[in-house]
Write a structure and sequence with these properties.
The chain is α+β, with helices and mostly antiparallel strands and 298 residues long. The chain has helices spanning 2-24, 34-50, 80-93, 99-106, 148-164, 183-192; strands at 30-32, 57-62, 67-72, 127-132, 135-143, 167-169, 194-197, 205-212, 218-221, 225-232, 234-239, 242-244, 247-250, 253-256, 258-260, 263-268, 272-275, 281-285, 290-297. The protein folds into two domains: 30-169, Haem-degrading domain (Beta-Lactamase, 2-Layer Sandwich), CATH 3.30.450.150; 183-297, Jelly Rolls (Sandwich), CATH 2.60.120.10.
């Protein structure tokens, strides 16, 4: 038995050493997320408004030059889309702002016009590499603003925004980003009951603007913990016990007609209650409109 245990331990040790050596040969790489690409576009749009730019197309590509996101502002000529993508790809492929190439080609006496024959090469001002920890993770290109200078200013603003968030290391979670809903959006969400923030972009949380006008079914969330804050109204709330006639309505979601046993309490405006994952709960009695935030954490 001792020899068997020693052999198992030796194999585990060898496996751990092999994993360590393999890990040492792999460098961590930053990646631009879709949320980051959208942030780049949002920041460039904000800069366009600040400069009163009449239009523009903003394109974001990853570190391989593949298009991730594109936004065409009003009053922008149609060719601007292809040009902005070309600028973004050129900035990534050559690891330089595209201003460098336009000025090089236009320079008196030493213009390198032969460079224009390079495939997928757009040597026009308005392309900027997107950097993270001295790594190029993508590029942003802008075309169709009032001038080449404004194209570049919008692209610079977008690239700068990506440094703040929207990056992730490979095999790791996305960096967190700020999400804002104004009061009109929130009011509209509570009027019908809807999801404010879903679980996209590898989030382990969601935010629901929930509304009930009557009792509901008994619920069990196998993986999600509910953090409930009552905004208005009151309800008889049952937690624990046994779900009657419980059925799976979706992956990791169970619904039933009621709960047998459990703890009954009244929750009302201003109350907070946390229901851990796997715990049955039931809005048993809702005498009037009942609105509440739910933060779901997985």
């Amino acid at each position: 038995m001792k020899n068997f245990e020693a052999k198992v331990f030796s194999n585990l040790l060898l496996f751990a050493l092999s994993a360590t050596i393999a890990g040492a040969q792999i460098a961590e790489k930053k990646v631009l997320t879709l949320a980051g690409a959208r942030r780049v576009i949002s920041a460039a749009e904000a800069e366009a408004k600040k400069l009163n730019a009449p239009g523009g197309v903003i394109a974001v590509v990853d570190d391989g030059g593949n298009l991730m996101a594109l936004e065409r502002l009003d009053a922008t000529f149609s060719a601007g889309a292809n040009i902005s993508i070309g600028k973004a790809r050129t900035a990534v492929m050559f690891k330089k702002p595209t201003r460098f190439f336009e000025e090089l080609i236009n320079a008196s006496g030493k213009g390198r016009t032969v460079m224009t024959a390079v495939k997928d090469f757009t040597p026009l001002i308005g392309g900027i590499p997107i950097m993270a920890d001295d790594q190029i993770v993508g590029g942003v290109g802008v075309s169709g603003a009032a001038s080449a200078q404004q194209d570049e200013e919008l692209a610079i603003a977008g690239a700068a925004a990506a440094k703040e968030f929207g990056m992730k290391a490979t095999a790791s979670m996305s960096a967190p980003s700020v999400t804002y809903f104004d009061k009109n959006q929130v009011t509209a969400a509570f009027a019908k009951g809807s999801v404010l923030l879903d679980g996209n972009d590898n989030r382990n949380y969601m935010v629901h603007a929930s509304r009930r006008d009557g009792p509901g079914m008994a619920e069990v969330h196998v993986k999600d913990t509910d953090i409930i804050y009552v905004l208005d109204g009151r309800t008889t709330f049952v937690t624990g016990g046994k779900v009657i006639e419980g059925k799976n309505i979706a992956a990791d979601e169970i619904r039933g007609s009621s709960i047998e046993g459990g703890e009954t309490r009244t929750i009302a405006k201003g109350d907070v209650i946390v229901v851990p994952n796997g715990v049955p709960h039931w809005f048993k009695d809702v005498p009037g409109p009942f609105t509440y935030y739910v933060v779901k954490v997985r």
